[in-house]
Amino acid sequence: MKLINNELVEETAEDIAQAEKDITTFIANEEAKAEARANQDALKASAKAKLIAGEALTEAEADTIVL
Question: What is the spatial distance between Cα 38 and Cα 34, in angstroms, rounded to a whole number?
Fold first, then answer.
């Protein structure tokens, strides 16, 4: 059941399928964002460790530094 114009109406199979698709898409997007954040955090940690050790940074690591 869903509310349309203050009336409860039955959901169709298409409505349910679309809702499930939307949920799946949302979850995939959130997982991708979390993975991107984790990768960025790992890159920053690597850059910091190399700076402390006096080693050369990769271009990607250098891009994480904010001056």
Answer: 6
Q: Which amino acid, residue 13?
A: A
Would you report the helix, strand and coil content of the chain in percent, each value rounded to 5?
A: 70, 10, 20
As a whole-number percent, the residues of the chain with pLDDT over 90 amount to 75
> Which residues pair with residue 3 across a beta bridge?
8
* Nearest in space to 41 (alpha carbons), one of 55, 61, 21, 67: 61
Cα–Cα distance, 42 to 50 (Å, whole number) = 12
Is the pTM above the cut of 0.85?
A: no
Give yes or no for a contact between 61 and 47, defined as CB atoms under 8 angstroms apart.
yes
Question: Residue 29: pLDDT above 90?
Answer: yes
Query: Strands, DSSP E only, in the chain?
Result: 2-4, 7-9
